[in-house]
Each structure stands twice: as C-alpha cells, then as structure tokens.
C-alpha cells in the first residue's frame, strides 16, 4: 500500500500559464480501492486531476486549509462536477476550519440557478448536490460512515493571521505519514502535527524577492507566509525525511530555478527537498 503526494497546483493568487492554483492530492493505495484526499481546491484543480485520469467522483473528501480565495477558487467546480458526473447520490464531504460551512452555503446559493436548470432538464437527476461540511479545530477527523477509513487524518491550528482560523492536516496510512501545512508562518501547531511524520508539504514564498517588490500589497504578504528557509527549519525541527515545497511566489522560473528554491530550504534542512511543477508526484515511504 502506498501513500503518495501529487502537487496538482503549484501556483498562487498570481496567475501563471502553467501553474494551477493551490491544490494537493494525497492518495493512499492503488487502483479502484485507492483513497484520494484533495487538500485545497485552487484554480484549475479538476483539469489537473483529469491529467491523472481522476475526476471529482473519485475524491474521498476535500480538506480546506483556510478560506483565502486562491485555495477555494474551484470548490464550486468540484461540487458541481461531482454532482453531475455521479449517477447515484454520492455525498461530498468538505472539511475545513470554522467558517467553511458559511462559504459552502454561499457557493451552493450561487449555484442555485444551475441546480435548477439541471434538475428540470435531466429526468434521472432527482437530488441537489449532496454536500456535508465538517468544521474542525484540532485532533482526529472522522468522515461519515462509508467514506474513507484507510487513512487517519488529524488537524492542528496553523498561524496565517490575520487569516484566522487556518489548519494543517496530517495523513497517516500504513506506517507512512505526510503533513500538508497550507499557508502559515512557523508555529507550534504545525510543529506538533509534523513530529514523527515522514514528509511535509509546505507553501512558501521567496521573501528575499517579495521584500523588494515596489508594491506594498505584495510586501504585506511577507508576515503571514513562510520562506523556503523557514519551511526548511520547520522540517528540520520535526525531523521529517522529505520537505515538499509548493505555492511558489513569485512563480518559478521568474523567481529562479527549482535548484535555487531547493538551495534556500537546504540552508536549514538536510533531508530530501522536492520542488516540482504541477503533477509532480512523491511517494512517501515509512522509515
Ligand atoms: Zn493564504
Ligand atoms: Zn495561498
């Protein structure tokens, strides 16, 4: 049984032609029995899933780290496509920090005309999108009966203030484990989540570059993200084997090569450092 990370989208709010918005897929197991956990649903997420031969119906659950627009842009697409492309009622569970229910309620409200059109047009479609929201703060998360089960998922508060609350998730499967941090500065919640894990997926921004951008709105982002060096320090404190960087701001290659990013993280962390394009896949192995 394998646990694998696929970087579906390595972009950020800044549109880039070849980087989808923030989204990471955690897959456990192989073939039809595999579980696929989607963490965040940024711009283009279903296009990237399609490249893997997967779609919204294959998702075990969706895990939202925080409610910044770039991380939830295409949540509406996941909801609609799941609903339209399944032929029996297939609930979609969306897990996120407090506030997620209100956002999902508003998304569903915005989809109301579309839902009405399709219900009226398709005789065999007799239910609205079946979405369940679970709001979490910390601890183990239990999905509804019949969903998941092969992966143990826990969450902790992260620190992306003033975006609050925000959470990170840890996925444990068959002795292997990976943490998906989301956007955060180094913090005790993330340290706790990472302790004993094999791998850490961390969003990062090149603070050395952003600090010199002549727009205050960009400079403002310095205080609630981690640099590759800070992500490296978090990985080193937790003694994980592998650090996977994503959410490259500015995008690679304008912000340097993958090797440049890796070198910055390596100033703090001497384990394996993965920097990749969309669809970059990393298998997580137990120690
Ligand atoms: Zn954010
Ligand atoms: Zn972000």
Automatic annotation (TrEMBL):
Transmembrane segments annotated in the record for this chain: none
CDD domains (UniProt xref): arylsulfatase_AtsA-like_MBL-fold (cd07719)
UniProt domain Metallo-beta-lactamase: residue ranges: 38-248
A molecular function (GO) term: 3'-tRNA processing endoribonuclease activity
Keywords for the protein's UniProt record, in alphabetical order: Endonuclease, Hydrolase, Nuclease
EC number: 3.1.26.11
Organism superkingdom: Bacteria
Leading EC class: hydrolase
Name the UniProt record assigns to this protein: Putative ribonuclease Z
Classification of source organism: Bacteria, Bacillati, Actinomycetota, Acidimicrobiia, Acidimicrobiales
């Amino acid at each position: 049984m394998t646990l694998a990370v696929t970087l579906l989208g390595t972009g950020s709010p800044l549109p880039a032609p070849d980087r989808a918005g923030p989204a990471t897929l955690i897959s456990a197991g192989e073939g039809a029995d595999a579980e696929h956990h989607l963490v965040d649903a940024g711009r283009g997420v279903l296009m990237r899933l399609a490249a893997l031969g997967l779609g919204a119906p294959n998702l075990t659950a969706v895990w939202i780290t925080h409610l910044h627009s770039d991380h939830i842009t295409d949540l509406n697409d996941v909801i609609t496509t799941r609903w339209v492309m399944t032929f029996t009622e297939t609930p979609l569970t969306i897990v996120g920090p407090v506030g997620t229910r209100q956002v999902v309620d508003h998304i569903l409200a915005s989809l109301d005309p579309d839902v009405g059109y399709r219900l009226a047009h398709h005789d065999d479609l007799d239910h609205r999108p079946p979405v369940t929201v679970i709001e979490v703060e910390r601890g183990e998360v239990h999905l509804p009966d019949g969903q998941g089960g092969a992966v143990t998922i826990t969450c902790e508060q992260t620190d992306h203030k003033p975006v609050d609350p925000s959470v990170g998730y840890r996925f444990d499967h068959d002795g292997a484990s990976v943490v998906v941090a989301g956007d955060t500065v180094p913090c005790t919640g993330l340290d706790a989540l990472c302790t004993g894990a094999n791998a850490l997926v961390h969003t990062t921004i090149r603070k050395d570059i952003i600090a010199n951008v002549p727009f205050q709105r960009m400079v403002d982002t310095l205080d609630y993200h981690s640099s590759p060096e800070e992500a490296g320090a978090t990985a080193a404190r937790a003694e994980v084997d592998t650090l996977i960087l994503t959410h490259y701001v500015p995008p690679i290659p304008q912000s340097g090569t993958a090797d440049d990013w890796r070198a910055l993280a390596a100033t703090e962390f001497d384990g394996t450092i993965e920097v990749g394009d969309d669809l970059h896949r990393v298998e997580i192995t137990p120690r």
